[in-house]
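Tokens as discussed.
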């Protein structure tokens, strides 16, 4: 049994944070890092890393795959899809920073009203639709060659550094500006402003790419959540499950477990949330997996942890547990090395 853990955000990205693991107890992780073969490589976005795990090239359409994982939407047609997620923009010092839609408390009625209005006003460019209040899509008649930055890369950072680039970028800049003016004047945002709430004042296009080929399942069982993971599993013909580590070990067979909670804390530089997520991962997932490895019920444990500054890969096979002189290595040692 090979237990693979996909843990984006495992490496804390904030350079200004001194000793982010202070007060954090992760004994199973330290034990694994001390015994495993570990490698740090250049940073990689979690979406692209997940594509690679399912055997797909970086240029595949993340939007089409994420939409494939939306249970309430019709199966994808021949349109070229973009994610056009609703976001908030606010000034902080000299920079315009982005707040993702999941932080804006957007109601279903607000989202539906905005989607209807976007289709009325901008329907000539394609069809807008929503999967939920903060995951929206745009179906284009033709693919676009423009380069877009994934939303997760932009959260809390200066937007100017991540605007569309390459061929067709000028047209997309114009369209973003036009939708911002339209959103500013919409009754939904006038009401939010009168209530003192952050307005939904922009859309963030991302996820363009080639029509994805069929994905290849990295394991017989995949555990996790999220629309992109669901779309990849659907493309690969496997079911994305919600199971405990004990049930997985009892069943046997190779498994991929995707744990996203640390990524949320890292993305928002919420140290408390990040530490709680790692403590939970250590106790609820990694410790039972290590016990199974020691008992011979598993043969291998791998961790793939993509991050902004570095990607950590740790691979532990059972014989590497036997040398008694190998000491635990704290996660902080790898966080320091990535800097």
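Sequence:
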């Amino acid at each position: 049994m090979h237990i693979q853990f996909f843990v984006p955000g495992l490496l804390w990205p904030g350079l200004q944070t001194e000793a982010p693991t202070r007060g954090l107890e992760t004994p199973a992780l330290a034990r694994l890092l001390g015994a495993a073969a570990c490698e740090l490589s250049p940073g990689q976005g979690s979406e692209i890393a997940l594509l690679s795990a399912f055997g797909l090239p970086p240029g595949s359409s993340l939007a089409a795959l994420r939409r494939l994982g939306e249970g309430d939407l019709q199966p994808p047609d021949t349109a070229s899809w973009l994610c056009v997620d609703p976001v908030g923009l606010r000034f902080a010092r000299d920079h315009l920073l982005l707040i993702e839609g999941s932080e804006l408390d957007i109601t279903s009625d607000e989202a539906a009203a905005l989607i209807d209005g976007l289709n009325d006003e901008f329907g000539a460019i394609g069809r807008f639709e929503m999967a939920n209040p903060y995951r929206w899509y745009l179906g284009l008649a033709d693919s676009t060659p423009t380069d877009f930055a994934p939303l997760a890369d932009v959260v809390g950072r200066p937007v100017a550094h991540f605007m569309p680039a390459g061929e067709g970028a000028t047209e997309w800049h114009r369209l973003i500006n036009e939708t911002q003016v339209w959103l500013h004047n919409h009754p939904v945002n006038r009401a939010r402003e009168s209530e003192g709430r952050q307005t939904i004042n922009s859309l963030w296009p991302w996820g363009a790419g080639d029509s994805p080929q069929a994905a290849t399942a990295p394991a017989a069982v995949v555990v996790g959540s999220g629309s992109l993971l669901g779309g990849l599993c659907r493309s690969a013909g496997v079911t994305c499950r919600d199971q405990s580590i004990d049930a997985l070990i009892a069943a046997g067979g190779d498994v991929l477990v995707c744990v996203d909670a640390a990524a949320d804390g890292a993305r928002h530089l919420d140290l408390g949330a990040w530490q709680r997520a790692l403590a939970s991962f250590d106790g609820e997932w990694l410790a039972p997996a290590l016990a199974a490895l020691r008992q011979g019920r598993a043969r291998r444990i791998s961790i793939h942890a993509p991050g902004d500054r570095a990607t950590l890969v740790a691979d532990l096979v059972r014989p590497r547990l036997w040398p008694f002189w190998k000491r635990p290595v704290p996660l902080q040692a790898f966080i320091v090395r990535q800097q």
